[in-house]
Amino acid sequence: MRKLFLAIALCLPILVMGQNQRDNDIFPKFGNYERKGWIINPSVTYMLQPLKQMQQRIFMSSDTIYDVLYNARGKMGVGIEMGRFYAIDYPRIISYIDFSFGLKMLRGVESFDATLANPDRLSPYVLRGEGTFSQSYATASLNLTNANKLSRKTSIHNTLGFNADYLFADIYTYNSPIIPMDLKIPGNLVLQAHYKIGFGFDIGNNLMLVPSVETPILTFYQYEDLKSTLAIFNSRYRPLIFRLTLLILDKKADRTCPKNNKPRKNKETLFGSSGTKPW
What we know:
There is one protein chain. By secondary structure, the chain is mainly β. It is built from one helix and twelve strands; from the N terminus they run αββββββββββββ. A hairpin with a 2-residue loop joins strand 11 and strand 12. The radius of gyration is 29 Å and the shape is elongated. The N and C termini lie far apart (81 Å).
């Protein structure tokens, strides 16, 4: 899946350059609004479980061996980000750039079945347990978006971005009776590249609503062979962020001629004081 998202992100500029050169600018060039404004990103997060269950053999002693099967599940979380965006004049590849700051929460569950490896038993001896986690991050992101019109009021948005997440609060619980498990937990700082796809809808003269879904495609730090998933407990989870982005264009400042409150004297004319000639 990581390779698929990476291929999409790398091929995006090529796909855009291959389009005909019609005007795809989604922001007005004229009128009462600037080509910049505020961006508000409320979101719902979900930790997508791996497609294949993780298995592990744990040796407690020479004659006590457990075969453990892990089952990861995601849970819903929430997030919110706010920032600024700036439209690019005469866009070809990048239509607008935005940066934002905010908070996000990632949550999930991992359960396991540990079966005693003893062929002499008539019925298997199984230990079961479960762990949960909740992580709260302060996040900052920078995004480069290519937007193309689908109709007069709709558009498709492809985004390649970078996010830096700092873990400031977390809760971990794990019930592992007598099983010596190695439980992994991410570091406090995570640096990633992500891909996002969304669809824009003009809902006013200066308002655009963009529902989208975002996921990491590369992790630069903590470094794990650039894997885009996060290792938590004994499983790897893929963060999915479902955003409902609101783009709000700034209103242009009123341009009025300055008023001259100084009263004209009776002897003053259009060319100066009376009795003098302008030439």
